[in-house]
Amino acid sequence: MAAGDLVLTGLMAVLLVGIAALLTRIENWRSYTPLAGGGTATGETVVHREKPAGIVRWLTTVDHKDIGLLYGVYAVIAFAVGGIMAMLIRLQLVTPGGALLGANAYNSILTSHGITMLFLFGTPIIAAFANYFIPLLIGADDMAFPRINAIAFWLLPPAALLIWAGFFLAPVTENMIEPAQTAWTMYTPLSVEQTNPGVDLMLLGLHLSGVAATMGAINFIATVFTERAEEVTWANLDIFSWTILTQSALILFAFPLLGSAIVMLLLDRNLATTFFAVEGGGPLLWQHLFWFFGHPEVYILVLPPMGLVSLILPKFAGRKLFGFKFVVYSTLAIGVLSFGVWAHHMFSTGMDPRLRASFMAVSLAIAIPSAVKTFNWITTMWNGRLRLTSPMLFCIGFISNFIIGGVTGVFLAAIPVDLVLHDTYYVVGHFHYIVMGAIGFAAFAGIYYWFPVFTGRMYQRTLGKAHFWLSMIGTNVTFFAMLALGYLGMPRRYATYQFDGAIAPLAQVQTYHLLATVGAVLLFVGQLIFVWNVVQSWLEGPKVEDGDPWDLERDGMLDREFQWFDRKLETAVTDGGEDEEQSALTGARSDD
Amino acid sequence: MSEQPAGRSGERVVVQLYVVIVALAGVMGFVLGNIRPADLEPELFGFIALPPTPLGVAIYGLVTVGLGLGVLLALVVVVSRRTDDEAGKRDPQ
User: Fold this and answer.
1) Looking at residues A388-396, what average pLDDT do you find?
2) B28, B86, B90: residue with CB nearest A483
3) Partner A contacted by B23 (CB < 8 A)
């Protein structure tokens, strides 16, 4: 205990020294202006007129492209952490008694996997694309509030540290502070009664990530409304900007509610309030508040990826998106309806059956705009000439997985089916088809599609395709096996499993768990290839010298971001490029 | 710099996608027939009783999903012929 205190004191001291060191630099920061015409009066080495050199550039940047890259790196790191956690979960379940972990460690990793993937990977990877490309797509100089943009990002690293704090602190505090074991839904009374301070830290981290998302959302709304170029009207606003705008509106309504609910939970845990106690609001109140945020969160995560697919797919089909207006309308319809479906997560709680029926109706109804989008993507492909590049393959994979995830979801929206399958692996399989098979795939499509723009280089195409096929097969093997496990009655979140033979033969359950793990290994190998491809190509890939690396001009589909990229190559006025000073002086075409 | 300048027929890729997804439904039917949950009584269109065996449920999955998505695919074909301004613009290269 004494040793633990000592270590904590030491950590605090290091933190304070770090803060003091940072504060001493504030004077320098003040004299640094992000404006295009401004200069750095700090006397530091600069690689660009507007930016300081080295790590200071990345710590102080307010350039939307830099912040987009920071979001991207952050999200990929979180994806790696969450992915390793997923692998541990899958390896654990290879044998019924658990192959690797104790129950507490399993619960910790399961909880952190969910929160990491949704809040530290999903939201930031979307913010990465939005930050980098929305201003370019709408012809803006930058985001409406560049400094708020930077603050929103810099709230995320401490959020991650708080969410994962239990893992770091458990060894040095003799398990006084452990990782949260509440599952990502943090249902009361479990989350109130776990005395572990790691839960408080996780809640604070989650709150911080919500604040960051809200600040980002305000910024995107302001940017799209006020910073568009004159020629960019509402009628010709691109589809990705539409989805980001809708998503930002959802964030604005959903995340502050999560923040309030988290504060109430913290008060219940630490100050003996009774918001979620039986004598107060009752445990079901948490579920209502959480899912009022939680289901829009699903659409917060899926709408921008839908926008990415709507933007990228036509480029490689060589034609315009079919029914553009209807895709926009369906985006707005999903945005509105997403706030009317939350209680379908609670059908088995014993809530009023009349309420259940209305939530079932809206849940089924939200399938319609989703189907409209799918219909339009498929019709776009039908009359197109498809170039099966890596981004296009991931778009097609998105559609395929989205159909499977969507159809399995429609069944879950029906109360009688839900009552049978609730809290089984069927639900896990269903939503992973969406979060990995669709959202993850769209993120990969975006990374490959814009890779030339943000790196100036081209990735290795063969590795890109290997990444796609391993991900596609891995996703379908893993999550298909989970659907089957659900039918077998395998409950979610269990660290071990034993089965009454009358329900299902244990051997059969284990076989599907094994299958799911094999699929997860395929997925894991695919992601290793992805990381290698991105890092290696970024450092050593062939330099892109053509502002239209995908031959989009031929079909008249060269969007603003590639036009910007082309101008950047031609004028060599890059932001933060290594040798643009020299290039600009010589007027030479940059080979960057 | 494009990866594959020639391009493939969108129709063919969409039909392949349809076949794969319907086949997956058949596999799921087969799996369900193997698992055989209690009260498994597949009835095609609600009135043609099929045996609750792997083959029976696989047929149920294939026909049900094949028909459901098939109707949507037919709709895609009709809509793209009649209302898609870009239809016919792109002849196979």
Assistant:
1) 97
2) B28
3) no
